[in-house]
Amino acid sequence: MAGNSYGTIFKITTFGESHGEALGGIIDGCPPGIILDFDTIKLDMQRRKPGQSNIVTQRHEEDEVQFLSGIFEGKTTGTPIGFIIPNTNQKSDDYSHIKDAYRPSHADYVYEKKYGIRDYRGGGRSSARETASRVVAGAVAKQVIADIKINAFVSSVGDIFIDKPYQVLDFSKTESNPVRCPDGATAAKMEEYIRQIRKEGNTVGGTITCVLQNVPVGLGEPVFDKLHAELGKAMLSINAVHGFEYGSGFCGARMKGSDHNDLFNADGTTKSNLSGGIQGGISNGMDIYFRVAFKPVATIMQTQQTIDKDGNIIEMQGKGRHDPCVVPRAVPIVEAMAAIVLADFYLMNKMY
Amino acid sequence: MAGNSYGTIFKITTFGESHGEALGGIIDGCPPGIILDFDTIKLDMQRRKPGQSNIVTQRHEEDEVQFLSGIFEGKTTGTPIGFIIPNTNQKSDDYSHIKDAYRPSHADYVYEKKYGIRDYRGGGRSSARETASRVVAGAVAKQVIADIKINAFVSSVGDIFIDKPYQVLDFSKTESNPVRCPDGATAAKMEEYIRQIRKEGNTVGGTITCVLQNVPVGLGEPVFDKLHAELGKAMLSINAVHGFEYGSGFCGARMKGSDHNDLFNADGTTKSNLSGGIQGGISNGMDIYFRVAFKPVATIMQTQQTIDKDGNIIEMQGKGRHDPCVVPRAVPIVEAMAAIVLADFYLMNKMY
Amino acid sequence: MAGNSYGTIFKITTFGESHGEALGGIIDGCPPGIILDFDTIKLDMQRRKPGQSNIVTQRHEEDEVQFLSGIFEGKTTGTPIGFIIPNTNQKSDDYSHIKDAYRPSHADYVYEKKYGIRDYRGGGRSSARETASRVVAGAVAKQVIADIKINAFVSSVGDIFIDKPYQVLDFSKTESNPVRCPDGATAAKMEEYIRQIRKEGNTVGGTITCVLQNVPVGLGEPVFDKLHAELGKAMLSINAVHGFEYGSGFCGARMKGSDHNDLFNADGTTKSNLSGGIQGGISNGMDIYFRVAFKPVATIMQTQQTIDKDGNIIEMQGKGRHDPCVVPRAVPIVEAMAAIVLADFYLMNKMY
Amino acid sequence: MAGNSYGTIFKITTFGESHGEALGGIIDGCPPGIILDFDTIKLDMQRRKPGQSNIVTQRHEEDEVQFLSGIFEGKTTGTPIGFIIPNTNQKSDDYSHIKDAYRPSHADYVYEKKYGIRDYRGGGRSSARETASRVVAGAVAKQVIADIKINAFVSSVGDIFIDKPYQVLDFSKTESNPVRCPDGATAAKMEEYIRQIRKEGNTVGGTITCVLQNVPVGLGEPVFDKLHAELGKAMLSINAVHGFEYGSGFCGARMKGSDHNDLFNADGTTKSNLSGGIQGGISNGMDIYFRVAFKPVATIMQTQQTIDKDGNIIEMQGKGRHDPCVVPRAVPIVEAMAAIVLADFYLMNKMY
């Protein structure tokens, strides 16, 4: 209940602090009999892990997942899948300077106020390192909904946007550059910009677009648990996310009904898709697409004023190895959360 | 589980179709001993109900709530508050034309596919009429968190935006015009525009901004149930919503960390508030503000092509009395859902 | 969360005090397309209602259920089924004597301490009148699991027990006498005994046995949500219940393994059935049977000493029309809760 | 949702098969700032572990728990407590004989039917080894409700019962004998009987009584989540449990109201306590006591007939090192589940 679980039928619960013994989680409700492909799980972990390119953090974390239960002779058994990801490369001494101080735009202050205690090492539970567990669960979820194609990619970094509709992009190119932007020319500009930002000791925000294809009609529950409401919550639960829109999104709020309505073809598909594949909270079989806004990483390599526990104004210099821009590494996290939401609704829909 | 409940401690479950006997709901987990102010509940219902001005639908629905339990001698007792809102003015014959046809960008098609049956009268369960129950629950929730100020208002209609920060607006003016825009000059333009849209038989989208003030530090649970993630889900669960952003939102994705970070004052408040009052998913005591995008209403008074159950292409003309723009009436719904989310976290936080 | 909901997929939430406007509830998660048989719902309501014979309370309550949603043209639509049962015959003046006093072995004292307020009229929320809503939900649940046969009956009143195994009883006789005991000779003794108890102004306890037949293999979730654990919780949640046992029950605790083990036939059925149709928390296709113990009703027509709010010792005389023995009227409640549990697991099992 | 979680506020989720890599779990909702006493956790683990005396199984399992998160400098932080218990001494070859056969009165058959796959080694997920995780969580829960005294003990083995009320027992004696029966003379008889049963290659059932003292008034939620209903579910979820009764229990079903009612003293305590410390589902401050029935262990060291996967009748001989009587080792498990239920309601009650 304290917010560490997600899902109803396909349910994940995670634990772990960035500098504790290990992260991990439990996937409950995974159907039995799935032959798990461990290579794709490993691949998703590698896409998220630090140190994979020179535009992301240079921390080295192995992020190797160990499955402890729920799998027998390579197949899921229907029992809970417990897993851990040992923290092997955490340097606690990096964080002594924040033991008694609150970093601006981090969760240090609110954790202290809410709990009266905090594991200050590397952000503790509020660290984005927690998302490693989500990627594991998402990689399993993808195998539950194997027919659904999930493709996320970086659609903007700062003011550099892909200026094309997703339909003309070749998703197989997403992994061909360190930014994870499937449009080569834009990717190059983004990469260049992120390098420059890093040199400044600064950080920059960005957006990720995610496209879900081949989703069966009928996923999502009306009223409160609409498919896009759950997708929205799932995305907003990712560290640094400040916005979510699907289909026409915020642009739709400027349109007229006559332009916005998606007219039907005889087979139930629609001529346009401003609805983003969801009507009344339920998938209609068209592509689902949504966009997620990430704020710039709060830890910058510049001197900032802040306060300590006693309310003294102090100066703080960012230390450690941090991402100048979080979106390249967040692509597999967005996919993972989308997969978890879809797997949950997919199983729920078997009732009907 | 089928999506008709919201909340964990302060929990609402709703029922009802637009043309059934009654709508209603159950509020479970409302603390005992609250002297309910029924006038403010009635007021919120009136703000949502149709027919209140000439820029909204001219349907006449009384929307009178009857409380059936959980209240004794004017006070809540801690037991579930059951309530109903009878449907007194629903004309079923209005809807015969859609019995066997699917309206574009409505939920008709997906309901039919998911359930194999649908109450076609007025959209049935997918009708925004369901939100009347949310407004009742929200009005009760507001009294649970009486110290928190919740102010929503229309911030854009089509391309007409308020071009001022919320801090300079006078929220007491929101109810002074039928658009529910606290900036008089902008309100006048919006009103004029909506009238024109209505004459065209068309509809238009818009946005609502909501500001939560005097929120105690510590609301929200880290990781999955972040305060803004729940606010996002709650808003996205409202009919016609296509986007949600809080704090710096999508603009934040274009910024640098050095510009985005909110530096602390000695007392723990922050000099800027691009975090939108939430850090790491937990309220930090600063104003929480967010913006919600509503697509244009799908029912237009123009002829559109669509399909019937058998896949025949047919022509359909919108009938009935519908809103040319939904945002004025959605303001109390946004407030209601915000109140429900806050009440839930407020009670949850008593554990700490 | 405050304890007024039951179930995960097939989920019921109830509201209502014994002397409020109405009782009622919401059934969420009922599958679509079920042609509801309203006569059987009415029948179950009549089996529970007061005044049906001269060995139960002589209160007259109509207990007429009004369905408000979720049903269209006689069929369930998959949307929540809201219903109310108006309180038409409640005499509030009967209860002035307990306004400031706590009845022994009732919930008056604990409600006052927990909530600081209580609706003292007729026990308020703690009244067994709440079970009327459960019977409605149970009657719907029975139609979700139409192939499963549910038969509960009174197996003991005071020291009068049926001394036969359930296999030799003719369940079609259960409704042939006011006690709801399918064994005629025993029923006659029980009836005579209850009459005598009533003359004494006293009450007596009893047990109900319930047999579930034709249950498919596989219902129940291992570990915490075992089928018998949920059945146990469901039964223990009924007013006045003090015990639950299934299969060999408390007798099994005296047995040896060599006598207790159920050996398999070649087809997977078992030669004996001390397991009570459940192994490892999962149904094995054999009959499920369990027994529920009800304490004697606390309200007796005799003078008892008790205390008032200020801790003064006072004398209290039971008033009103109460049941001398609750088990005859509790038979449909036991069946209803069993049906709700089974429907929930039945739908959940569709995942596999 | 697949049944591997318990609790709402204080919530435990477990994972692990008897012969997998490790068991473990996540405790979510543990309040921050508790200085954990690891010695008492270890002690409870030792009370449950195999091989502790010569009347329990002679398997040697270290059952050492490793905490991975949620604890910082010896204190709970309010974040989820992840833990694992490595399986260090599991001999997989012991179980080849049951790979294709179903043991009588075990869960082999139903797992195979439900999931289509099972980890046959040692019962897999259905093994009572899972309860090791519960004991860890329970030991933490005990520290959340440090003022409440929880004492379980063996009250019967086969036909040997303690013939005294719990009030005259000295709970400090429970651990003084391997049976965990606080009455020395009875304990000696039980021990002797269990030795004899073991020699016969047989097993025997028993009961455990549990007493909860110093429980504050007000724990439990009315209607479905009554305190005793949750205690009942928690106990029935323990392997081999076939019955639960609290207060007067099944005996209460034979009594008259005039004998059963608990009259009040001026201070709100009661002269008798047949209610078992709970009225209307809510604790009244008196001792809570309940009794749990365990069937005899299904694995016996005798030859039994059973079937294999193909429905062939085969002979099977129990192998391995199993408990002749499960109740001595189940005492800490009963206490653990009671502590988990109490901690959950205790935290929930802070809302009021």
TrEMBL record, chains A, B, C, D:
CDD domains: Chorismate_synthase. PROSITE patterns: CHORISMATE_SYNTHASE_1, CHORISMATE_SYNTHASE_2, CHORISMATE_SYNTHASE_3. It comes from the Bacteria. It comes from Flavobacterium pallidum. Belongs to the chorismate synthase family. This reaction introduces a second double bond into the aromatic ring system. Gene3D superfamilies: Chorismate synthase AroC. It catalyses: 5-O-(1-carboxyvinyl)-3-phosphoshikimate = chorismate + phosphate. Pathway: Metabolic intermediate biosynthesis; chorismate biosynthesis; chorismate from D-erythrose 4-phosphate and phosphoenolpyruvate: step 7/7. FMN binds at R125, S126, S127, N239, A240, G280, K295, P296, V297, A298, T299, R321. Its cofactor is FMNH2. NADP(+) binds at R48. The gene is aroC. Its EC number is 4.2.3.5. HAMAP family: Chorismate_synth. Homotetramer. The keyword Amino-acid biosynthesis applies. This is Chorismate synthase.
